[in-house]
Design brief:
alpha/beta, 9-stranded mixed sheet
Length: 417
């Protein structure tokens, strides 16, 4: 701001003060004059609207943080969408590998909510008033997969809204669209599946997570709705279950509850799974066994079986995540996936590895084991490429990579390929 603008602003601010009606409450009582920039900053913080009638007496005083006595606050009981598992007014994570029916599970909950039926294995088994739901689905066709599955589960489709164009919705920018959808159908449940596909921020950083999900958590509390975020797990089985989800640890820090799904370790049935409470700051809950089953119209539904006793640590070291899948093997699989299409600049490989949370030391160990070649291009650029021969370590990485790719092709819709 130049000198002339400063002078003009000071004159304008003095004129505003001079025209204030008698007895009007000052904007910043007791605050010393510190120049026009301070005044403008304070007015901006106060979000003062320009008076239409010249009356300045009702201008709002800017909000200031207050300290409250806990003795003055009333205790409250948590409210639940699914008792002891999915609270209202907060975020719940649903985590697990592909193939365990995470999306099918959420569709079953949507059907129960919109039809007013009890939640799975509820002890009181009481019906509740129907409510709406909002779905953000990024991996499945709404017409070919989601609607048939909701119909098979008995949902009231008029109570369900879904985003039509996945690529156009991003948090936190489109939070108002979500708010309007919740109010339109009286929703008590919002499902975002999968989380990264609808977020315009880096979920591997704490600041990016806060930017994308902080306002979403506030919206859940304001509207007293349950927000379920679906995400996949990382490969490392050496980490505690609570830290296994992809992305920053701040994601689970924001969640009031976290549920994890995996294969039932006590059964050889590949369609039988287990849902476990991974984290909650509100309650405890038993694990639940369920089975995914195909209906006559080829839609997949959930058959809830019974309660179980296994913990998250027990199921995450089972058949899903082999304990011998080491960080070195993960780095080898990463390098095969990056270089299988041809040589890549070293700087690019290192950047991708950092984003994948692979330590530089581990990456170079994998490079040596796989006999990956480095060659210089020009004066300063180095590129990496897979060896020409059938190196055993490369073949092992290829086998794991192809296995995961085949699993992805089975799980993902054709439109994604």
């Amino acid at each position: 701001m130049n000198k002339e603008s400063l002078c003009e602003t000071k004159v304008q601010s003095q004129d505003v003060i001079a025209r204030a009606p008698a007895g009007a409450k000052p904007l910043f009582e007791g605050a010393p004059w510190q120049g026009p920039e301070t005044l403008l900053r304070e007015m901006n913080l106060a979000k003062v609207a320009k008076p239409q009638d010249g009356n300045l007496g009702n201008l709002p005083i800017p909000a200031r943080p207050k300290l409250l006595s806990m003795a003055d606050l009333k205790s409250g009981e948590p409210r639940w969408l699914w008792e002891n598992r999915i609270p209202l007014g907060g975020i719940t994570l649903l985590e697990g590998d592909p193939g365990h029916g995470k999306s099918t599970l959420t569709d079953d909950l949507v059907a129960r909510l919109t039809a007013g039926r009890p939640m799975p294995l509820a002890e009181d088994n009481l019906e509740s008033p129907p409510a709406g739901a909002v779905l953000l689905r990024g991996e499945e066709s709404l017409t070919a997969v989601v609607r048939p599955r909701l119909e098979a589960a008995g949902a009231d489709l008029k109570q369900v809204l879904a985003v039509d164009r996945v690529e156009s919705f991003r948090l936190p920018n489109d939070l108002e669209v979500l708010r309007q959808g919740v109010k339109a159908v009286g929703a008590k449940l919002v499902v975002i599946d999968p989380l990264p596909q609808f977020v315009d921020a880096n979920l591997n950083s704490s600041s990016g997570t806060q930017q994308a999900l902080g306002e979403l958590a506030s919206l859940a509390e304001e509207l007293e709705i349950a927000v379920v975020l679906v995400r996949h797990l990382g490969k490392s089985s050496s980490r505690k279950a609570i830290y296994r989800g992809l992305g920053s640890v701040s994601i689970i820090g924001l969640a009031r509850s976290s549920l994890m799904v995996a294969a039932d370790p006590s059964s050889d049935d590949k369609h039988q799974h287990m849902l476990v409470l991974n984290k909650s700051n509100l309650a405890n809950a038993k694990s639940v066994l369920y089975r995914t089953e195909k209906t006559g119209n080829h839609a997949i539904t959930v058959n809830w079986l019974r309660h179980a006793t296994q913990s998250t640590e027990a199921i995450t070291t089972g058949c899903d995540m082999a304990a011998d899948y080491s960080e070195l093997e993960r780095a080898m699989d990463f390098l095969y996936g990056v270089l299988v299409g041809g040589e890549k600049p070293q700087r690019e490989v290192l950047t991708f590895a950092k984003e994948a949370d692979i330590a530089k030391r581990t990456l170079y160990r994998a490079k040596r084991v796989m006999q990956i070649k480095s060659k210089r291009v020009g004066q300063t650029c180095w590129v990496w490429q897979l060896p020409a021969g059938n190196v055993e370590a490369v073949l092992a990485a290829k086998e794991r990579f192809v296995s995961e790719l085949c699993e992805w092709l089975v799980e993902e819709p054709a439109a994604k390929r």
